[in-house]
Specification:
single chain; about 675 residues; alpha+beta; nine-stranded mixed β-sheet; 28 strands; about 25% helix
Length: about 675
C-alpha cells in the first residue's frame, strides 16, 4: 500500500472533522457512515436536478412529489403550503394539463449547487442558481431568474425538499427581454453557509458510528461506483466542451468502436465513422470568425450500474448557435440520455441519444413554439425511479423512449476488496472515498466563488482561497494570497452595498474535476455562463444579456480540513451580444483603425503581482494580454488543463498547471506539499 493511499485515509478523517483517536479506531462501521454521508449529499443534489427534469417534461405531479407533505415553497412574497398546493400551482403554471402542449417549452435550469449536509446526516441545505425559459406555444413567453435557498430532510433512505425558498431577481418576456423584479435594486440573498462551511460539504459527524451489517467488500463496491460516477460526469462534460469548439477528432475519441448515435429528426449513426458523420452536421472542424456553437449542459444526472461496467447520463442542454457572417442565430433546447461502457479501465460513450425539444430562430423566439417543434409526448427515459417516492415515473399518455438492452458483459469484481489484509483494504477504500469527496468539495468552493463575486463580498471571496492561492483579475493580471486578492477586487469594484442595481451572474457549471491520488488537490475546469440583469429605463434597450467565458485552469486544495481555491483563471469573453435585440450574431467586428481595447484600470490602480502582458502565448488574444486583442465575433483560443480523457490526445491549447505556474514555479501546488492531479489517461 503506497504512502499516498495511506495518507488519503488520514485526510478523509480530517475532512470529516474526526479526532486522532477516531482515526486510530477506524473500522468498517465508521467507513459505512462516511460513505452514507457522501451518498446522501449527492442524493440531495440529484433530487433537485430530477425536479428540473420533471418540469422540462411537464410532469407536474412527479415534480411536486419531491416535496414533503408539509413543505413550504416560498416565491418572493408568496408561500405555497404543502405538497398538494405545490402540485396545483405547477399544474396551473404549466397550462392546466399533464405534459406540455404542442410547441410549449418549460426549461428551468437549476444548477451551481453549494450543498451542506447537517452534522446528524438527517437534513441538508443547498443554494442554487435558476433560469426559467418558458413558452406556451401560442405566442406567450416568460423568462425569469433568481436564487434558491432550499432545505431538505431525510426520511429513511429517501430525501425530499422541506423548504424551497426562491428569491426572484429578474423577469420578462422574449420580445422585450428581462429586467429587475419591480425595477428595483436587488438585495443580497441570505447565505445558509459561513465562509468556512462553503468548503466543508460534510461537517464532523455526531457520536460514534452505528453498528451495521455492511461488509467492506460491499462498501468498496459502492465507493468504486462513486469514483466511476465522477469519471462519467467528467466525460459527459468534456464531450460538451469539444462540441462547442467543433473539436471533432476529440469527440470521436470519446466513443467506443461499436457506438451508436441517435437523434430525433436526424436518424441513427453507427460506429466511430457514424459519430463523425453525425457531428459534422454542425459544420466543419474548428470555428471560423462569427461562428457560435455553444451547448451548455445543465443538471447532469449520472447512474452507474452494478458491476461498474455500464453507466447512463441524462441532462438538459441549451444551444446558442449562430454564424455572424451569414446573419443567422438560433436557440436549441434538448434533453440527452447517454450510455457509457468501461473498456480496459476507461469509460467511453456507447450510445448518445439526443432528444431536441424546440428549435427557434433568435428573431422569432420560442413563444409560439419556434421554427421546429418536436413531440412533447415522447420522452427519453429517466435514469431511475423517482428519488423521493421510489416508484417508477408514471408515463401514461407519454411515449417513453426506453433504454437500450444491456449488451456488455459484466466482468467479475477484481477490486482491492477481494485481496489483501483488512487494514490495507480499509485504507484503499478510504483513499478512493477521499477522491470522490474531493469532487464534491471542489464543486462547493467553486460555487461559493460565483455567489460571493455576484454579491461583491470581497473579503469572503478572498477568504475562499488558500493562503498561497492566486487569482487572475480580468484584463489585468494575477494577485497572490488572500489579502492581495481581496484588495484587488475592492480596488476595482468598491465595497459591497446592501443592494445592487444590476448583476452579471457567474454561473460556474459543467465541471470537469480531476483529483490527485491522495484526494487533497484537484484541477478544475468550469464554464462561465453569464446572464445579466439591471433596471429598465424608458426608451432604453433591455438590460438583459447573455455572455460567456471559461475557467480553464482552476485548482483547489484541502487546507486545514477545508476546501479552498488554489488558482483561478478566467478567459473571457468568448461571445457577447449586441443588446438583447441584436443577439450574438448582431455584434460587428471592431474597425481596423479602432483603438486597442484598454487593459483593466487595476493595472495602474493596484498593479498586479504578475501582469497578463508577462504571460506570453497563454494570454495571447485576450484583452490586457499579449498580441492583437481578439474580440467577438473573433474566435479566442480555448485552453484546456487536461488531455482527452479516453485517447490522451493533446489539445492545441494545453496548459495543465495553474496559469502563472510556468513563469513562477513557486506558485505550483507541488511546491507546497500537494500532488498534481492527473491530466489524462
Amino acid at each position: 500500500m503506497s504512502k499516498q493511499i495511506r495518507a488519503a485515509g488520514v485526510l478523509l478523517a480530517l475532512i470529516l472533522g474526526l479526532s486522532c483517536a477516531a482515526q486510530a479506531a477506524d473500522d468498517v462501521d465508521t467507513l459505512a457512515r462516511d460513505v452514507d454521508r457522501l451518498t446522501s449529499l449527492r442524493q440531495v443534489k440529484d433530487l433537485q436536478r430530477s425536479y428540473a427534469h420533471y418540469l422540462q417534461a411537464g410532469l407536474w405531479d412527479e415534480a411536486a412529489s419531491v416535496f414533503t407533505d408539509d413543505a413550504r415553497f416560498i416565491r418572493g412574497t408568496g408561500t405555497l403550503n404543502g405538497r398538494k398546493a405545490v402540485a396545483a400551482w405547477l399544474l396551473n403554471r404549466g397550462g392546466g394539463r399533464r405534459g406540455l402542449a404542442p410547441g410549449a417549452l418549460y426549461m428551468e435550469l437549476i444548477d451551481e449547487p453549494l450543498t451542506n449536509l447537517s452534522a446528524d446526516g438527517m437534513s441538508a441545505r443547498s443554494r442554487w442558481m435558476s433560469l426559467a425559459l418558458i413558452g406556451d406555444g401560442k405566442g406567450t413567453s416568460l423568462i425569469e431568474g433568481g436564487i434558491y435557498e432550499n432545505e431538505y430532510v431525510r426520511d429513511g433512505q429517501r430525501w425530499k425538499i422541506s423548504v424551497a425558498h426562491y428569491y426572484p431577481h429578474y423577469s420578462g418576456n422574449y420580445e422585450k427581454g428581462w429586467s429587475n423584479i419591480g425595477n428595483a435594486d436587488l438585495p443580497l440573498v441570505p447565505y445558509h453557509f459561513t465562509l468556512d462551511e462553503s468548503g466543508v460539504p460534510l461537517p464532523p459527524p455526531v457520536g460514534a458510528a452505528p453498528a451495521g451489517k455492511t461488509s467492506l467488500a460491499a462498501l468498496t463496491a459502492t465507493i468504486d461506483r462513486l469514483n466511476d460516477e465522477d469519471d462519467v460526469r467528467n466525460l459527459q462534460h468534456s464531450y460538451g466542451y469539444y462540441v462547442d469548439r467543433r473539436m471533432w477528432d476529440d469527440v470521436v475519441d470519446l466513443f467506443a468502436a461499436d457506438s451508436v448515435v441517435e437523434e430525433t429528426g436526424a436518424g441513427s449513426f453507427k460506429g466511430q465513422r457514424g459519430v463523425r458523420q453525425y457531428i459534422e452536421r454542425m459544420g466543419a472542424a474548428g470555428l471560423q470568425q462569427g461562428q457560435l456553437n455553444d451547448h451548455p449542459i445543465f443538471d447532469t444526472l449520472v447512474q452507474v450500474l452494478p458491476g461498474g461496467r455500464e453507466a447512463y447520463s441524462r441532462g438538459l442542454e441549451l444551444g446558442l448557435i449562430g454564424d455572424a457572417a451569414k446573419g443567422t442565430q438560433h436557440w436549441e433546447f434538448a434533453v440527452f440520455r447517454n450510455r457509457f461502457v468501461k473498456e480496459d479501465g476507461l469509460w467511453k460513450f456507447r450510445e448518445l441519444r439526443r432528444f431536441p425539444v424546440l428549435h427557434a430562430d433568435y428573431a422569432q423566439g420560442w413563444g409560439d413554439g419556434g421554427k421546429l417543434k418536436f413531440a412533447n409526448d415522447a420522452l427519453p427515459a429517466f435514469l431511475a425511479a423517482n428519488p423521493a417516492t421510489g416508484k417508477a415515473v408514471a408515463t401514461k399518455g407519454f411515449k417513453l423512449l426506453a433504454a437500450r438492452p444491456l449488451t456488455v458483459a459484466i466482468a467479475a469484481d477484481k477490486s482491492a476488496a477481494a485481496a489483501g489484509t483488512e487494514t490495507s483494504r480499509l485504507n484503499d477504500a478510504r483513499g478512493k472515498l477521499a477522491r470522490s469527496m474531493a469532487w464534491d468539495g471542489t464543486e462547493n468552493v467553486s460555487s461559493a466563488y460565483g455567489y460571493y463575486i455576484d454579491d461583491f463580498q470581497w473579503p469572503n471571496m478572498g477568504g475562499i482561497f488558500a493562503e498561497r492561492g492566486n487569482k487572475q483579475s480580468p484584463f489585468a493580471g494575477y494577485y497572490f494570497g488572500k489579502d492581495r486578492i481581496t484588495a484587488a477586487a475592492t480596488a476595482m469594484y468598491g465595497n459591497a452595498a446592501p443592494a445592487r442595481a444590476g448583476i452579471s451572474y457567474h454561473w460556474r457549471v459543467q465541471l470537469v474535476v480531476n483529483v490527485a491520488a491522495d484526494g487533497r488537490s484537484t484541477n478544475l475546469r468550469t464554464r462561465l455562463f453569464q446572464p445579466r440583469t439591471g433596471k429598465a429605463r424608458d426608451g432604453a434597450p433591455s438590460p438583459a444579456g447573455l455572455f460567456s467565458g471559461m475557467y480553464p485552469n482552476d485548482q483547489a486544495v484541502i487546507e486545514r480540513g477545508i476546501w479552498r481555491l488554489w488558482a483561478l483563471e478566467i478567459d473571457e469573453p468568448y461571445f457577447t451580444q449586441a443588446g438583447w435585440e441584436g443577439g450574438w450574431s448582431g455584434v460587428k467586428p471592431r474597425a481596423a483603425d479602432a483603438p486597442r481595447p484598454a487593459a483593466s484600470p487595476l493595472v495602474t490602480r493596484l498593479p498586479p503581482d504578475l501582469l497578463l502582458t508577462k504571460m506570453g502565448k497563454r494570454a495571447e488574444g485576450f484583452r490586457g494580454g499579449t498580441g492583437e486583442t481578439i474580440e467577438w465575433p473573433g474566435i479566442l483560443p480555448m485552453w484546456f488543463n487536461y488531455r482527452n480523457p479516453v485517447s490522451g490526445r493533446l489539445p492545441e491549447f494545453y496548459w495543465p498547471d495553474c496559469a502563472p505556474c510556468e513563469l513562477m514555479p513557486e506558485m505550483q501546488m507541488t511546491k507546497h506539499g500537494y500532488l498534481m492531479p492527473p491530466t489524462g489517461p
